[in-house]
Amino acid sequence: MEKLTGKKINVAVFISGRGSNLKNLIKYSKSKYSLIKIKLVISNKVNAKGLDYAKKSKIKHFVRSYKNINISEKQILKQLSKFEIELVCLAGFMKILSEKFIKKFNKPILNIHPSLLPKYKGLNTHDKVIKNKDKFSGATVHLVTPKLDSGKIILQKKVKVSKSDNVEALEKKILRIENKLYPEAIYKFLINF
Fold first, then answer.
1. End-to-end CA distance of the chain
2. Could you tell me if 101 and 162 lie in one domain?
3. Residue 14 neighbours by CB under 8 Å, 6+ apart
4. What's the CATH number where 167 sits?
5. pLDDT at residue number 1
6. Enzyme catalytic residues
């Protein structure tokens, strides 16, 4: 990565769980190579562990339950506008954004998915890889479109699946590459955007 000078763009990261990719993106955002400033973290779960990383880094955070998708998405769009968010990064966000939300936001949304798309869209990807005895799996960063896990692929990394791998072992292996892949994909996307 080469160092680029200039204004960093405002990013919101959406999470639902432990936030390991968020933690890594926060670290990346503080590096001299970063093109992003994380201004907002949004979660659909009040007890998401990842919110601790937002608090520690003094990043504004916002929780919406998604009991009513229309109300939640309206409130989230308000926050994205208030914080002048130019890019959304989904990092283990376990809700599907509506077509209306994607159109209204009208700026890029990236997602990291734990498979080599277009293979294994949706949930339980590691399970499917193990059941099908695939030799490789991996992670993909792609643009979000209204069609699930079908947007343009920005970057992929693959890992070898060992015969001894179970779902948990494969998940750990892929999470390690996700942490490196997401910042690289964001950088690649922004310098070519």
1. 16
2. no
3. 41, 42, 43, 44, 88, 89, 90, 91, 93
4. 3.40.50.170
5. 47
6. 113
Beta bridge partners of 109: 88
The burial class, CB within 10 Å (0-12 / 13-18 / 19+), for 85 is buried
pTM listed for this prediction: 0.94
Helix (H) / strand (E) containing 124: none
**Confidence (pLDDT) at 92:** 95
- From residue 90, alpha-carbon distances to 93, 96, 122, 136, 161 in Å are 6, 10, 14, 24, 25
Distance separating alpha carbons of residues 58 and 63, to the nearest angstrom: 15
**Mapping DSSP to helix (H, G, I), strand (E, B) and coil, where does residue 113 land?**
strand
Token couple for 174: 């892929």
Q: Within a domain: residue 1? A: no
Query: How many C-beta neighbours within 10 Å does residue 60 have?
Result: 14
Residue 184, pLDDT score: 96
Q: Is the pLDDT of residue 95 over 50?
A: yes
Q: Are residues 120 and 174 in the same domain?
A: yes
Q: Which helix (H) or strand (E) holds 67?
A: none
